Every structure is written in structure tokens, then in C-alpha cells.
Amino acid sequence: MGSINSHVSFPLEGLDLRPFLAKECTSQITTYDLFSVICHHGTAGSGHYIAYCQNVINGQWYEFDDQYVTEVHETVVQNVEGYVLFYRKSSEEAVRERQQVVSLAAMREPSLLRFYVSREWLNKFNTFTEPGPITNQTFLCSHGGIPPNKYHYIDDLVVILPQNVWEHLYNRFGGGPAVNHLYVCSICQVEIEALAKRRRTEIDTFIKLNKAFQAEESPGVIYCISMQWFREWEAFVKGKDSEPPGPIDNSRIAQVKGSGHVQLKQGADYGQISEETWTYLNNLYGGGPEIAIRQTVAQLQDPESLHGEQKIEAETRAI
């Protein structure tokens, strides 16, 4: 095994990785050019880092040593003791493709339609040799409009292209869909309002039922609910989570006795709710198992010794 100072030879251009690709890889371009090197001077435990980076505009290499930046010849880079090498995929065809798009845009052909394209994909087109199909779904909802929560910053998500540029990119890369009109999706808006109403209804109903439960001096039955599930439900109704929880899962707090009865597990992380609250949540989400704590009143043999008082025994059992 070489040390941290071992010299490793590496090409500045034309590193071909085709022999190392997985069989299922669909990439057509497999050559890479170096654009940065990190060098480490010192021991494995301490030392100093220097970086060499290429300016993509003029092809010039520079040495970065803390606050000092110095022009260097590529032969210097070729002979450094590389610690980390950074390569990017290279393709003259991709460069020509970008130049063609710039030329088409400069023609300023009058067009009846202007098209919107994903800024994210266009950034990939400008930097990747294989950007893949156009992905306008990144700013669209499933109905083809703009999600209401994205509309206020839609200018950050799209770029306007003249018709001739759009048609060239679409014919070359495919994907889409074509978008020449931006509008807020009314279907999504209705769904958002319905979700907000559902959240308000559920949390308001819970607060109302729990307030009534707290007012009971001696409830006949107390239901147990897993706090893990309850926290997920609470995050949903308060808008912290976008998705509602699944069915109530009391399995973590339940203990099944030999007789098949389900009891509360000792030391379980649970909350106490009323029968009405349990019924409400269970009707909405389903799940279980039901775990209830019932209070039974038992008279002693000698009522006079209690001076008319009664002994309360708590009994936990499944319903």
C-alpha cells in the first residue's frame, strides 16, 4: 500500500472509464478531463492542503495556497502528488450543441409562442454532457399547472425560450411536457383548501373532546394511545408533515396475556384519552388494538369500618 506521498500518474485529458462501467449503464460518453486536484503535504495525521484548478473559460491552471493564487503551467499539475482528483465528463459534441443553442437564440426569430423550460434542466444542459430528457415536471403539478405553493417563486424555476430554441431542444432531447402558459392549478388549490379544512376539523374536535375529558372527575373508562402515533398525527394536523399518519398503531404499548386479553405494557410511552376521543380517531384512521383502563367499585365486607367510603380498584383490560 502506498503512502500519502506516493506519486500517482494521471492524465489531464481523455481519461476513458468505459472498461469500468456497469453493464446496465446507458451512458454514451465515457471520457473525462481533469479540472481540479487537491494535494496534501505532511503526514496522515496533519499537514497542509493546496489545490490546483482550471479556469474553464481560458483553460489556464492556477495554484491555490491559502490566500495566494498563482498561474501555473499544466506540466506542473501533471507532476504533483495528487491526493484527490476531480474529473468531468468531456464531449466536443456537447460544446457544439450549446454553441448552436446560443446561435439560435441570437437569431431572434419572431415567434408566436414562447416556451418555459425548467431552469434546473437548463443548468444541466449547460454543464452536463448528457443532460437527459427535458424535465419540466420539476415545476408542474400532476395536473399540468403550477402548484399554488410554487407560483410565487416560479421565475426562479423556469427560463423563457423562443420557439425555435425550444423546438431544437425538444427534438434533440425529448421529455417535456411543452409549456407556453403558466397558471395556478385550481385542482391543487381545492385540494389544499380541503386539506387545511380537514386539519382544522380534526384538531378542533380533539381539543373539544379532550377538554370535556379533563372536566370529568372520575371517568369510567380511559383509553390508551401510543404517543409515537399521536406525535405523527399531531405533526400532520399542525401542518408540520404533509402526509397524514397511517392507522393507529398501539402494538408498541400493548401486551397480550395468555388469555388473549390485551393490556397496557408497563413503562409504555402512551397518552390517556376518553372513549369519545378514541372512537373519533379510530373512525378516521382505524388500527388498534384497543387498550382501556376501567375503574371498578368494590364494597368491603365491613362497610362501617370505611365510615361510608368506598374502595376504588383500577383494572386494565382489553375491550
Automatic annotation (TrEMBL):
InterPro entries: DUSP-like_sf, Papain-like_cys_pep_sf, Pept_C19_DUSP, Peptidase_C19_UCH, Ub_carboxyl-term_hydrolase, USP, USP_CS. GO terms for biological process: endocytosis; protein K48-linked deubiquitination; protein K63-linked deubiquitination; proteolysis. Residues 1-90 form the USP domain. Residues 92-185, 194-297 form the DUSP domain. One of its GO terms (cellular component) is centrosome. It is found in: Cytoplasm, Cytoskeleton, Microtubule organizing center, Centrosome; Cytoplasm, Perinuclear region. GO terms for molecular function: cysteine-type deubiquitinase activity; zinc ion binding. Its EC number is 3.4.19.12. It catalyses: Thiol-dependent hydrolysis of ester, thioester, amide, peptide and isopeptide bonds formed by the C-terminal Gly of ubiquitin (a 76-residue protein attached to proteins as an intracellular targeting signal). It comes from the Eukaryota. Pfam families: DUSP, UCH. Keywords: Cytoplasm, Cytoskeleton, Endocytosis, Hydrolase, Metal-binding, Protease, Repeat, Thiol protease, Ubl conjugation pathway, Zinc, Zinc-finger. Belongs to the peptidase C19 family. USP20/USP33 subfamily. This is ubiquitinyl hydrolase 1. The lineage of its organism: Eukaryota, Metazoa, Chordata, Craniata, Vertebrata. The gene is USP20.
